[in-house]
Design goal:
single chain; mainly alpha; 76% helix
């Protein structure tokens, strides 16, 4: 049986994902710039990360409504994005 999703999320966002994509502020500043180039709508880095929370909540909603199968990854990612958004808001990133 898998361990805590909180521990798993912490390991991902501060380990593998950080190594692959770099610091969250740099990664999601790129995302915000791409979004603006496509839509003309500016986003802050924090809003770009919050958007990812919305994506994961949408997938969770589908699961809860029986429209999609449960995937642990969605909850793990939700925890990871929440943690990194908190870091951004507290000036830790």
């Amino acid at each position: 049986m898998p361990g805590s999703i909180l521990v798993e999320a912490e390991a991902l966002v501060n380990g593998d994902r950080a190594k692959q994509y770099g610091p969250i502020r740099e990664d999601y500043s790129r995302v915000a710039a791409i979004f603006k180039a496509i839509t003309g709508i500016p986003l802050t880095t924090e809003i770009a990360v919050a958007f990812m929370l919305a994506v994961k909540l949408s997938r969770l909603g589908m699961t809860l409504q029986g429209q999609a199968k449960h995937k642990r990854d969605n909850l793990t990612d939700l925890c990871g994005y929440a943690s990194k958004l908190n870091d951004l808001l507290e000036g830790k990133e």
